[in-house]
Amino acid sequence: MGLFSKLFGIKPAQKTATENKFQTDNSSMETVDLKNHFDQICKETIIPFFKENGFKKKTLHFARQTNDITQCFNVQKSQWNSYSNSITFTFNFGFYNSDISSIIADKEVQNEFPKTYDCFIQNRLGTFSHKRDHWYTIARNIDPSKTAEQIKTDLETYLKPIFENYTTLEKLKQFIDKDEKYISPTLSPYYLIAFYMLTDQKEKGRKTILEHYQNALKPQTVTDTVVLPDGTRKEKVTSHINQHYIDSIKKLADRYEVKL
């Protein structure tokens, strides 16, 4: 029996009174079907991929320790999912290192199962598989087996080579250099500085500290729009210095003896 056959293997003549009741309540039936489609894709396509490749699992988060980094992945469902009409979801992946997290937190950090949002490098798989932020969709008019096939292809073709090729901090230097337009914007300046210093790229780290310190000193302009009771819109423009930004860069400069 093929994918999702359990949902479609009952002939109309065999329908029970309970099934007929569901059929009269279209929204309920559609909700159950779409959720089952999503669960089945996870069970038969996504989870087996990570299990076969040695990842540990917690709900829909996956992690694998490789040398001095942890490779992370998660399935993110849209907060706007209706479940009655459609379910959309996307894939995030990242790389975690406890030393980098400890440097940024300014204390020892222990994380036995880091999630994608803990990673110092984070990105969407769609950036590589579709050259944009891609969301998969399960809907009444979309064959779920086709979605499953696309997911399997994307995991095998795009994610697997990334995780196979970049298994250490040292190798991630090549990843950032190779895909700078995709990766660098996802790194906060603090993570990037710590990464440079830990991978013996001290001149890059020094230049990044100086560059961001100068940026931190520039006032940031914020425009707030207020709607008055009579419907009039009034804009208020303010400028301020981000002191947290300045203090964080100063702390890293002190740590690595960079003169500001």
UniProtKB/TrEMBL annotation:
Which InterPro entries does the record cross-reference, listed alphabetically? DUF4304
Return the protein name: DUF4304 domain-containing protein
Q: Please give the Pfam families that the UniProt record associates with this protein.
A: DUF4304
Which organism encodes this protein? Algoriphagus faecimaris
Q: Which domain of life is it from?
A: Bacteria
